[in-house]
Write a structure and sequence with these properties.
The chain is α/β, with parallel strands linked by helices. It is 41% helix and 16% strand.
């Protein structure tokens, strides 16, 4: 069918792959005059170094950064709606009206078309929203050349790529039409080379840094929301990401979504790349609609983990995502850079590997309201007092989220996370997977549920595990040493097997990250565990959530991740019956309770501490003054626990091991060889008695 001219027989047409072509011979000796009716076609022409043959473009095409008047080039199109000042909702309504009525949103100026007198027209039939339709091109061509297109030597090529491979093929199509085949090969090879560079870089950072592919959603429109289609899924994959579980698929058109769909998908990273908009417009629209508006949509959006943790970005969609042109390789590099933005190591490696292929911040992308995200997270932590009951009630009613009473934001329940089937890596409040996909560097900062902050590398796991309640001080450290010696001496268990079975369990305040009474932090415990090469299970405690329940959930995590079935729970209590009785009553159902230090003479314990070589520093001592109504000048923060301090405590009437809470310590195990610290070196003669 000859759709571009009124006379049959004057032109032949063919459709091959992603290209609709009106085939008319053109001789290299003739003057080539290119009319590009699509910004992406203009970029391809420029990429092929055919700038001098470009005689006409659209009102949206950019040449050398210029969207205004250009000498020797006519802008032959206009839009029936003022895109720059029209809201996304009104643009969407205009588009839908245009599609249903068959009336194009774009017009071609007939006089300008005649003046440029093209020999080659590059257009598209992929999207009626993006450029003049075939019918509009047909109409104007018929008016300009009423006798026939062929008579005037006019070629019309419609490019319709739907994936990255087809985008690359269009480079060759245009090159061959213009008889610059070698330039087409060069442009195509450069495009693939840049894509491969991105793919190799993201593969390396995941392997070297042990990172998971983040879930990423590109929003092609906000009101109503559309996700990215066509070549965007290819870009997501090459950038080292995956689409949200329910938004998969390739070679498909962009689809309209509901905000409920997006909340359910809860992507880790979101790019706002509204079609036809530059960086400033996308940043403005997203800020006003999603962060500053007091609407249900804004509240739903800010409940997403991407919004909570500052992983929402506005980008220049015109340059890097919307146009099927050579710049898509830069868009893919940018997508990778933003997807791994939460890991400084990954950002550094990507920047080194990709260099200028990544558009600069402020030119190609902007972060959307990271301060708001931080404020929301701080509020969530502070307001955690009543949310556990809200969460339990929501789960009981099979709900996937509840509304935080302080922020008004949606918070996902553990049920929602279980439906996803894996940890998303964002440190979610009710993560049932122990934050296993949060990087260890970030885990102690984001942790809201029991999680391993250090794991000993072992080949297998025993069914019975030794869980040592570890507060970072000398008593829990000595309990660890005594337990290791006991298992080796009495049960004849090999040293390495004992260490493989041990899990240090440290509970701490979920808001301040401090360990109760010690004035140390969970980071101190992690440093100790790393130095000793032992697994550390961190358990954040929250007001409104029962302590015993928190410990039980932590042990469930050991069962799930390490195959444990039964436990020995090891404590460093020295002589207080009241505390021991409480533990026996409330924790006895969780495992076999062990007290290796209970009733042991203090002098024996002090001798064992000396054998370890581990210095212990006082971190807190205020309670001693309150308890005994008198101070002990030899006891102060920063002082090492030694024989002189013990004597001073006795003289002041204090317990010389601080068992009544007079003082607390930090065992600096990282200053000593780990084998000596744990009592494994024979030359120390530890535990020979």
């Amino acid at each position: 069918e000859n759709i571009y001219g009124p006379k049959r027989g004057d032109c032949s047409t063919s459709i091959f792959g992603n290209v609709f072509r009106l085939s008319i011979p053109w001789n290299m000796g003739d003057e080539m005059r290119i009319l590009s009716l699509l910004p992406s076609c203009t970029q391809i022409v420029l990429g092929l170094s055919l700038r001098e043959h470009l005689v006409g473009v659209t009102h949206e095409c950019e040449i050398d950064g210029n969207t205004g008047e250009i000498e020797g080039v006519e802008r032959v199109t206009s839009s029936v709606i003022p895109i720059g000042t029209t809201s996304q909702r009104d643009i969407d309504l205009a588009v839908k009206t245009s599609v249903s009525s068959g009336i194009s949103l774009y017009t071609i100026d007939e006089d300008k078309f005649a003046r440029v007198n093209p020999t080659l027209i590059l257009t598209q039939n992929l999207c009626s929203v993006c450029a003049p339709t075939k019918k509009e091109v047909q109409r104007v061509s018929g008016i300009a050349y009423p006798e026939s297109c062929a008579h005037h030597g006019l070629n019309i090529v419609s490019l319709e790529p739907t994936c990255l491979d087809e985008v690359a093929d269009t480079f060759m199509t245009v090159a061959d039409e213009c008889q610059v085949h070698d330039r087409g090969i060069g442009l195509k090879e450069k495009f693939y080379s840049e894509l491969h560079k991105v793919e190799n870089a993201t593969n390396r950072i995941r392997e070297n840094l042990d990172l998971q592919r983040p879930t990423l959603m590109l929003l092609e429109w906000l009101d109503p929301p559309f996700d990215g289609g066509h070549w965007v899924p290819d870009m997501v994959e090459i950038a080292g990401c995956i689409p949200p579980d329910s938004f998969g698929g390739k070679k498909r058109r962009s689809l309209e979504r509901s905000w409920e769909d997006i909340v359910s998908a809860d992507p880790e990273v979101i790019l706002v790349a509204c079609c036809g908009f530059d960086l400033e417009r996308n940043f403005k629209d997203a800020t006003e609609a999603l962060f500053n508006a007091d609407t249900e949509v804004s509240k739903m959006f800010q409940s997403l983990r991407a919004a909570r943790y500052g992983r929402v970005f506005a980008v220049d969609a015109n340059q890097y995502f919307a146009q099927p042109a050579p710049q898509l390789s830069m868009g893919t590099a940018l997508m990778a850079r933003l997807a791994y933005d939460n890991d400084d190591r990954a950002v550094a490696l990507l920047s080194d590997a990709l260099g200028d292929l990544i558009p600069a911040e402020g030119e190609g992308w902007k972060r959307l309201k990271p301060k708001v995200a931080e404020e929301i997270r701080e509020t969530e932590v502070k307001d955690i007092e009543s949310v556990w009951e809200l969460h339990d009630e929501a789960v009981k009613n099979q709900k996937l989220h509840y509304i935080d009473p302080e922020t008004g934001l949606f918070v996902f329940t553990s049920l929602a996370h279980k439906r996803r089937g894996r940890c998303c890596g964002s440190g979610c409040r009710h993560c049932p997977f122990g934050h296993e996909n949060v990087s260890l560097e970030k885990r102690s900062e984001l942790i809201t549920q029991a999680s391993f902050l250090n794991k000993r590398r072992v080949d297998g796991f025993a069914k019975h595990r030794y869980v040592v309640f570890f507060s970072t001080g000398k008593d829990s450290f000595l309990a660890l040493r005594q337990w290791i010696a006991l298992k080796h001496r009495e049960d004849k268990i090999d040293w390495e097997e004992i260490l493989d079975r041990i899990v240090l369990l440290t509970s701490f305040d979920g808001t301040s990250k401090k360990i109760a009474h010690q004035d140390t932090t969970i980071d101190d415990a992690r440093r100790q565990a790393k130095a000793l090469d032992l697994s550390l299970l961190a358990v954040p405690l929250h007001p409104g959530k029962d302590y015993v329940r928190s410990i039980g959930e932590a042990l469930d995590l050991v069962r799930a991740q390490q195959g444990a079935e039964t436990f020995s729970l090891v404590f460093g209590d020295l002589r207080l019956e009241l505390i021991k009785d409480w533990r026996d009553k409330h924790l006895g159902h969780l495992g076999i309770l062990e007290y290796p230090l209970f009733g042991v003479d203090y002098d024996e314990l002090f001798q064992d501490l000396k054998l370890s070589g581990v210095p212990c520093t006082i971190t807190s001592c205020e309670f001693g003054k309150e308890l005994h109504r008198r101070s002990c000048d030899e006891v102060y923060v920063g002082r090492e626990f030694d024989a002189e301090l013990r004597e001073a405590c006795i003289e002041c009437g204090w317990d010389d091991f601080g068992e009544d809470g007079e003082f607390h310590t930090l065992a600096r195990v990282w200053e000593v060889d780990s084998k000596r610290a744990l009592g494994l070196l024979h030359e120390t003669q530890a535990f020979q008695q």
